[in-house]
Amino acid sequence: MTRHRVDLALLAVAAVWGSSYLATKEVVDADGALAFLALRFGLAAGVLAVVLRRRIAHIRRDELIAGSLFGTILTAICGCETYGVTMTSASNAGLIMALTVVITPLLGGSVAVAPLFYAPAALVVLGCVALTQAGGFALPGTGDVLIAVAAVLRAVHVSVLARTPAVRRLDPAAVTLVQLSTVAILTAMPAGALGQFAAVPQMSGRDWALTGYLAVACTVFAFGAQTWAARSSTPARMSMLLGTEPMWAAVIGVGLAGDPVTALGVLGAVLVVAGTHWGRAVSTGAGSQPCTGMSRRRHRHSRWCSRRSRRA
């Protein structure tokens, strides 16, 4: 598994996730958000179960535990994200989710964050503030706040994925199946209690097509690829690559949905994208290396050897 292949997979995930905001906004409303999530993740789990039909009976206990943990966090992310996108624009939602880029490296534990990282982090935060005020200065809307909460939870999700020691020994497909099934179950129960499934028979062919796209491309592929990449990438690097999602969301939201464009909104988008890419460069440099006494001694030793070889 090369870094190039892992990076390409994560960029593809970012692209389909960027398109998911508009697709979700076109299909769901706040009154049926939980039923939509149960349907989306139920379809996704069904598709993946067919693909893995020979593997299902051999899913191990540690894969069940890991998938259930990741799925519980993912349920909270998708709940906030889905309700949030019904209350704000698709491009705004995607750009605010870039806060994940700021938060994930700070949850890196033993992985040091370079002091320079706080500069691009500040740009991303300022950009998000500008986006929420693009329609005039006021308190951020409920949708904006929910998307920001989803960004925090996604950072936790990425960090837990990357920092779970057993994840590198688990089958990504099996863990993803358990993860998706967990979301479907945890959203179906309250959706049924609230009577939200009553709207399903009224769904049009277009609604089903968009739900299918969200289930297969934005769920089966995306979360499977993320789990696969977590085995050989760092939390900061994953966050930076997935951080290109706002660019895709903004382009699709403005280009296809005609989301309003204001000078302050453009400034916010530029700050978010610039901060995301700058932060990616910083976090994949020295700031993404484990900060231990042994690593510092090795670094000093390698520089001493390099100077000595040049003198020779």
Task: Write a brief structural summary.
The protein has 312 residues and is mainly α. It has 13 helices and no strands.
Describe this structure in words.
The protein is an all-alpha fold. It is 72% helix and 0% strand. The protein contains 13 helices and no strands. It starts with a helix and ends with a helix.
Count of alpha/pi helices = 13
Approximate helicity band: over 70%
Question: Low-confidence runs (pLDDT<50, min 5 residues)?
Answer: 286-312
Q: How would you describe the shape?
A: globular
Order of helices and strands: HHHHHHHHHHHHH
What's the topology here?
Elements: H1 3-27, H2 33-51, H3 61-85, H4 90-96, H5 99-103, H6 118-132, H7 142-163, H8 172-193, H9 205-229, H10 235-242, H11 245-257, H12 263-283, H13 293-311
What attributes characterize this protein structure?
312 residues; globular; disordered C terminus; mainly alpha; 0% strand
